[in-house]
Target: ArgE/DapE family deacylase
Amino acid sequence: MISTEPSDAPIPGKAPALTNSALQTETSLRGALSETQRNHILAAVDMAFESQVSFLSDLIRCASLREHEAEVQQLVEATLLDRGYDVQRQMLDQALIGKHPAFSPATIGYENSWNVIALHNPAIIQGRSLILNAHVDIVPTGDPKRWQYPPFEPWRDGEWLYGRGSGDMKAGLSAVIFALDAIRAAGLELTAPVQIHSVVEEEITGNGAAMALASGKVADAVLIPEPTDEKLVRANSGVIKFAITINGTPAHPREVSGGVSALDAAIRLIKRLRHLETRWNEERTTKPFFDDVDNPAALTIGTINGGEWIASVPSCCRFEGRIGFYPGDNPQERVKEFEAFVATAAAGDPLLQRCPLPTVDWVGVLHAGYTLAPGSEAEAVLSEAHAGANAPDGTPLQAYVMACYLDAAVYSVHAGIPSLVYGPIAENIHAIDERVSLPSLRRVTKAIALFAASWCGVRRVETTHQISAAGVDT
Amino acid sequence: MISTEPSDAPIPGKAPALTNSALQTETSLRGALSETQRNHILAAVDMAFESQVSFLSDLIRCASLREHEAEVQQLVEATLLDRGYDVQRQMLDQALIGKHPAFSPATIGYENSWNVIALHNPAIIQGRSLILNAHVDIVPTGDPKRWQYPPFEPWRDGEWLYGRGSGDMKAGLSAVIFALDAIRAAGLELTAPVQIHSVVEEEITGNGAAMALASGKVADAVLIPEPTDEKLVRANSGVIKFAITINGTPAHPREVSGGVSALDAAIRLIKRLRHLETRWNEERTTKPFFDDVDNPAALTIGTINGGEWIASVPSCCRFEGRIGFYPGDNPQERVKEFEAFVATAAAGDPLLQRCPLPTVDWVGVLHAGYTLAPGSEAEAVLSEAHAGANAPDGTPLQAYVMACYLDAAVYSVHAGIPSLVYGPIAENIHAIDERVSLPSLRRVTKAIALFAASWCGVRRVETTHQISAAGVDT
Model:
C-alpha cells in the first residue's frame, strides 16, 4: 500500500500544469540565474542576516513544546502576513487522521497545535512550484540547569546561537523566510507558486506535514532545512514509535517473593528488544544506501515510568521508544513483526511469563522511510545552489543517510514529490546546549534562496529594497 | 549512637512511678483477670463487632494517601473525643526533625499530616502504662481497575473486608479503639494510663511515631496491631530508603552513539545493586533470629522515572527504593556502605563511567531495626491474652521476624520500650485487592482487650453498658 517509489498516479490537489514535464524543462532553462541576479540575492541575504538572527531568537523564545506551538505559530503567521503572503491557519483535521495513509496515530487532541501555510502565487507562472517546509515543534530541554545558557533565552557565543530548537529546526524556518525575502530584495519575483509549510508534530507523529499534504498542498519539489550539516539526505529510516505497558504483581517488601516487579520485567523485555534491534540492523547489508550506516534501527527507549511507591514492588511499568527500518519497508508489517517479537520474548522469559502479555500501543510516527533517487533535477539544482552559496571555497554537495524520521517522508512517500532535506550545521539537537552555527545558517539561507530562484524561475520587478514580499507589482 | 538494646538511662518524659519494678510486679498480680471479667470483655467485643466493621469501613473510605491523612484523622479524633479521651492533634514539628535521632529525612512539609494522640488517665493508677499505636497512612492503590472492588469502597465478601488500608493497618486501628471500648462495656476501667497514637508517615519515614516519642509520649509497653497473621514480631529490619539520580548525555536517535542513556545506566546500576543485596543477605547467618529469613535485605526498587521524550536518549533517570539490614546495625553506617557501593559500582561500569557519579538522596525511613528480647513480661501477658482470645481452639502465640520497617522500632530503639507488633490476618497489603480477615480481626481485638486489661490492670466501675469510655466514675 505504501511505496517509496514516486507515484505515477495523479496526485490529488496537484495542479496538472505543474507536473507537465515539457513546461518543467522550459522553466529550468528560464530559471538559470545571471551572475548579477545571484550576486544580488547573496548580498540581500548578507544584508538581512542580523535581522534573521533576531527573528530566529524570537522563534527560540517561544517554548513550542508539544501542544504549546500556538505562540510561535502566531509569530510565524504575523511575519508571513506582514510580507504579503496568502496565509492560512490550518487546523489538524481529526476526522481525516486514521483515514489517510500519511497520518500516524494521534495521542492528543490538536486544538492548540496547528499549521501555518503561506502561499505566494505569482501572476505569471512559468517555473516549477516549491514547498519550503519547517517544523516549529521542539522536544523537551532536560534539566535547564544542565544548560550553559537557559534553553529558551537564545544566546550568541561567537559563531553559535544556543537554544532549544535553534538547530532543530527554527534556524531552518528562518532560512526559508529570509531566503524568499532576499529574492524580493534583489528585485526579483519567483515565477512559480511557492508555499511555506510551518508545521507542528514533526517530533512525534509527522501529522503536521501529513495534514498539509492531505489537504492537497503539493508542489514539484519540497525542501526542508533540517539540521544536516549542509548535506543532502539521500535516504531516511522508516520509524515506528511504541509504548509498552507491563503489569506485575505488587507486593510489600516483607514478601517480595510473592510479587512480580513490573520494573524488573520491563528491564528483561528491554534487554530482549536489543536482539530485535540487532536483527533489524543486520538487514542493512541488503538495503540500498544503508549498508554502512552504523545503527539504522536505533532502538531508543526514550521514557520509562514505573511503580508508585518507594516501598512496594511496582505494579506497573511503561516505557516508550522508537525503532527504525528501511525505505521500501511497509511500516504496518514492521508493527506486526515488533508485536510478534514482544509476544515471543514475553513467552520465553520466566519473569515475563508471570505477567499478563505486555501491551504495545502505537503512540507516534508509524511511517515508511524514503529515498531521494540520485540524478533528480531537484538535486542538481540544489547542488548548483549549494556551490553558489559556498563559492569560492565550498565543497560539492554531499549526500548521506539519516536514520530517523523526517517530514520529507510524507511528501515523498505519499505524493512522490522530490524531497530535499538540507540545512545548517547544528550540534546537540535533542540534547543539552543545542546550538546552530550562524555562518552555516547564512550559507544555507543563501543556498535556499539560489535554489528557489533557480527552481521556480525569476523575473525582474520593481523593488523598494525592503525585506518584504508585500505589494508585488504584477 | 543508635542501639537496639533497651536503654538503662532515664527516658525523658517517662513518669518515674511507671518504671518502678516493685510496683510493676504488684500490678501484674493485681492485673490478672477473673474468668468473669475475661468473659465479659470477650462478649463485649462480640457485641460491638458489627459496629467495629462499620467504623473500619469508614476508615477505609478515607483515602489517606500521603499528605491526605487529615480526613481520616478528623474521623479518629471525633471518635476518640466522643469516647471521652483527652485528645490532642499533634503537628509534626519541623524544627525537631533532623535533631532527634528518631526522625528520618522528611521530603515534604507536614502541614496536612498530623498525629492524633488520645489519653485515658485514670484517677487510680496501679498498673503499667500502655501505648496502642496504629498508623493511618496508606500506600497508593495501583490501577484501581485491577481491583475486584474499588479500593476505597470497602466491600465485605464472606469473611473478608476489602479495601486499601484494610489490613495495613486500619483494621488494627479499629481493634485498638474497640478493644478499649469492650473493657469499658464490661464494666471495667484500666488502672494505668493508656494512650492511643494514631500516627501518620509510617509508610515512608516513620516520622509520625518519631514525633509522638520525641514529644515525650512514653509508656511501659507499646502494642501495634500491624497485620501479622496473629503472630508476634520477634525482630524487624533496619531500613533505609534511597533515591538515585543518574544524568546521562541526551541525544537524537539519529546519533545514539553520541549519547549515554541515563536509563541504560540506571539498569546497569540496579543490576549491580543486586550484588549488594546478596552481600547483605549473606550476613544473616551471623544475625540472631534472621538466619532462616529468606530475603532480609529485600532490595526493592519501588519507582522509576526516566527520560522526557519518546525519541531522545534519556538525559536523566531516577529510581527510588529501599534496602534492609539487621537489628543492632547503625543505619548511618549502612548509608555509608550503600553510598560507597554505588560509587564503586559506577566507577567499575563502562557505561556508568560516562555519566557523572550517581547522586544518592535519602528520602524516607533511615532507621535501625529492633529485637523484642524473648522472655519479657509484656510478651508473656500478650501470650496469655492471645490464648484467651482463641480459646478453646487456638494455637499458642508464635513469634517471627518481619523484614521491613515498623513504627515499633521507634519506641524500642530510642526509648527502650517493649514493643509488641501483633495484628490480624491480611492479604495483599501494598498490592491489588488488599483484604483483612474479619474473624481474625475479631480475635485480635479480643486479644488486645485482654492484654490491655491484664497489663494495665482493671477495677470495676459503674457501667451504662454503652460502648464508651466517657463519664468514668472515679
Summary: Confidence is low (pLDDT under 50) at residues 1-30, 465-474 of chain B. The domain at 238-367 of chain B is CATH 3.30.70.360 (Alpha-Beta Plaits). Chain B touches chain A through 62 residues (CB under 8 Å). Residues 35-61 of chain B form the longest helix (27 residues).
